[in-house]
Specification:
Layout: E1 6-10, H1 14-26, E2 30-34, H2 37-47, E3 51-55, H3 63-73, E4 78-82, H4 87-96, E5 100-103, H5 108-126, E6 132-134, E7 137-140, E8 145-149, E9 155-158, H6 162-172, E10 179-180, H7 181-188, H8 196-212, E11 219-222, E12 226-229
Parallel strand pairs: 1-2, 1-3, 3-4, 4-5
Antiparallel strand pairs: 6-7, 7-8, 8-9, 10-12, 11-12
């Protein structure tokens, strides 16, 4: 039997939760609901949903706090839902590890389309079969795992966020090619209206993690253009 994705709806406004629940179920998804952050974390741990629709403004534990807690234990896809349209809120959510961001009032059909797109993108990454090797870095697309290879040939797994992995895997398919920031946004965050400086933030953190793990200065900035992977000889 085909797997039916489970969507966890975290929303404290019953009318909005009802609409999202109805539209998602109409399109064939399973759903569970939580009206506060504590319950959301409990259900996330128990049910292991395929994706979380997460409101930022929640009673007690905020949506941003829930996002941070989920990212400490895994990389479940998360779409933030909020009435706040300020760019800084988007930057913070995406920086912490959200996969996408929608602003109220929204078209429920668009939200469902974004859910499908995020899951489609996840499945596309998971269908990759052959690990990619760039310098000391090995990217296992099936396992969603990046490792640093030491001088003895031993693999040391690296902890990355979903977006960091997505960026590294995408650039790793074409090492030494220069990618503009907009190219990376379209390829790795296509449903998001992320600003270019969000990519800078993600790549800065990724570069630091690679360097700290012994992967070298793999990510290069190309002034006025964007970024490229350039394995050291």
């Amino acid at each position: 039997m085909a797997h039916v994705p489970l969507i966890l709806i975290v929303e404290d406004e019953p009318d909005i939760a009802d609409v999202l629940d109805s539209y998602l179920r109409r399109d064939g998804f399973q759903t569970q609901r939580a009206s506060d952050g504590d319950r959301a974390l409990q259900l996330h741990q128990q049910l292991k949903p395929d994706l979380v629709l997460l409101d930022i403004r929640l009673p007690a534990l905020s949506g941003m706090e829930v996002l941070r807690e989920i990212r400490k234990v895994g990389d479940t896809p998360i779409i933030m839902v909020t009435a706040l349209a300020d760019d800084m809120d988007k930057l913070v959510a995406l920086h912490v590890g959200a996969d996408d961001y929608v602003v109220k009032p929204f078209n429920p059909s668009e939200v469902v389309a974004r859910v499908k797109a995020v899951l489609r993108r996840l499945h596309a990454v998971s269908r990759q079969t052959r690990p990619t090797r760039i310098g000391r870095i090995q990217i296992d697309h099936d396992a969603h795992l990046v490792s640093v290879i030491d001088d003895a040939g031993q693999e040391h797994p690296l902890t990355l966020t979903r977006t960091e992995f997505r960026l590294l895997a995408y650039m790793g398919r074409n090492p030494k090619r220069c990618f503009a920031r907009q190219d990376l946004i379209h390829a790795c965050l296509p449903e998001s209206d992320a600003l270019e400086r969000v990519i800078d933030s993600h790549l800065s953190k990724l570069r630091h993690k690679l360097q700290q793990a012994g992967g070298g200065s793999l990510i290069e900035s190309v002034r006025g253009v964007g970024y490229r992977l350039w394995p050291e000889s």
